[in-house]
């Protein structure tokens, strides 16, 4: 296993990167010469259509020991608790829902075996919507590899560190960071520090991108320079390997007689990357009123309607609150968008009890929600001095489509059947007097 301290990264979101593990492995001046250096195969990996506009076109040329088609036939594989949209196995109620953290398994379980789908929306076959999963694992994948043809994968670690060995290099990711692996990229997950748990958003739609800053200007939010990409690293190893694919909602496995991590060099802008959430430059109000949570958007996958995302990835990190004459927690609201929240560490300011790290909540389209009763009374009467939120890191997957929970999510003992009670003591303060 690689020592994470030895890893190096390329920087710049969406940049055309080039990297080679052997000197001269990248062809000069062309992508597919008649014969590649080191007698490698040229293989293009496209994450968007060939004819996508230049600004949104994503593709990478790889130079590998064998082309990816050097493999055996796929056979079906039991998907366990992994599900794909559309979710039709259970009705989708409008209720507010919340779950405790799912336990880390005690029996040997790798990343794939530990995937559990909590909810999903849209339709993977029409490339709309998302799948929302929890991963738990206590061992690495070894000689088993995986790729997802249904969507790109956004990892949000909550406990434990991940080493992602991908075709294009290795990424080390820990809680407080995120990782994105494009649709179709092969990888395996190893565990350098023991058992892990985290959240996984499977984005069926357009690839995640940085949101526009608008009037904020050239600085603020997530900066391109802070995204990190792997450098080329290859394995020239033969043996018995397995490749698992997620395709049209099902899992399929195929035999390989070599490691699929055999890319000696690559150039392009379709590649895995990671980002440290502590580098997010928070923009917040310095006058009055609580701003919309869209100011905390790290990444967005747009839909065909401008300003209405297939999915936004939004965080609520440590920050200052200084607004005057303002109710500072999120106000009570009903949204056209649907919200799925998770907590990485600390306490979320609108839910001081019952929302634990590793836990989750779902507030669907037009379902009312907001701060619990105790938080409302506390915030309504607080002395409004500048306040630093320190011990907190929550996030939200926000989508234009209704998020349907799986049967597992509806029936698991981890679901808090009494979640609605946190609003049960809301009082009537109205007395007809100003």
Short description:
By secondary structure, the protein is mostly beta strands. It has helices spanning 373-380, 407-411, and strands spanning 9-11, 17-20, 41-46, 59-64, 75-77, 97-99, 115-120, 130-137, 144-148, 152-159, 162-166, 169-173, 177-181, 187-190, 196-203, 227-230, 238-247, 250-258, 263-268, 273-276, 297-305, 308-316, 319-321, 338-346, 360-363, 387-389, 392-399, 404-405. It has a 9-stranded antiparallel beta sheet with strand order 1-16-20-13-10-15-8-7-28.
Please, could you describe this protein's structure?
The protein has a domain at 281-421: Jelly Rolls. The radius of gyration is 23 Å and the shape is globular. It has helices spanning 373-380, 407-411, and strands spanning 9-11, 17-20, 41-46, 59-64, 75-77, 97-99, 115-120, 130-137, 144-148, 152-159, 162-166, 169-173, 177-181, 187-190, 196-203, 227-230, 238-247, 250-258, 263-268, 273-276, 297-305, 308-316, 319-321, 338-346, 360-363, 387-389, 392-399, 404-405. The protein has a nine-stranded antiparallel beta sheet with strand order 1-16-20-13-10-15-8-7-28. Strands 6-25-24-27-22-21 form a six-stranded antiparallel beta sheet, with no helix packed on it. Strands 2-19-4-3 form a four-stranded antiparallel beta sheet, with no helix packed on it. It is mainly beta and 434 residues long. It contains two helices and 28 strands. This is Homogentisate 1,2-dioxygenase. One of its GO terms (biological process) is L-tyrosine catabolic process. Hexamer; dimer of trimers.
